[in-house]
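Good morning C.,

I know you're traveling, so I'll keep this short. The sequence:
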Amino acid sequence: MMNFDTLRVQEDDTRVLVQLHRPQSRNAINAAMIEELHSVCAELERYPRFLVISGAGADFAAGADIFELRGRGREEALAGINRSLFDRIARLSLPTIAAVEGNALGGGAELTYACDLRVAGASARFGNPEPGLGIIAAAGASYRLADLVGKSVAKQVLLGGRILDADAAYRHGLVAEVVAEGAALSAAVALVDRMAKLSQLALRLSKCAVDAEGPHPALDDLAQAVLFEGEDKRDRMTRFLEKRKV
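The tokens, ready to paste straight into the viewer:
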């Protein structure tokens, strides 16, 4: 991948680790970061791998860049600048994980909601304080957060200004795991390492099935039919039956 100004990227054949890197502004998401994350997505669309996103310093991302937001008008809102990126991340074919330390607020929280899984350090905090700035959480929170935690808790966050600490986020199913402060990234990488041992095609088709709207038995049957014909399925099941580690 190319060099970036607002991101630090490490990659191998299995995964891409992206660190939001604007520590002087608590990793506030600005237009440059959005464009650079689009470049990461384009690479992952060409060459699918697991994606782990973390933040530099004490916070994941304290929100969108308010200096830029203040200058945006109707046309920028209609363009869905942040929302279109987060939707693109949500569509990536292999699982994505947010490794969250400190604050994930506003657009930072919405970026974590767009990921398939979230791992939280003990200091993590999730919230959407946008109404206090005269705007709404319009980068996916209105339709993703309710799916993740239920409509009642989503309204507490989006309307009532509730901040979910790491324990509350775990209780409500927003995060998969809470680990010691500073350990979120290593826990997310360990999770990727476990998933990397699974069938990549099965993971991709599982994600498609889970993300599909409404009941979709035909889609599930079709995905299973593809997997049933593959050598990977036969090899894995043979090793299982022979009591060998998959």
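Safe travels,
E.
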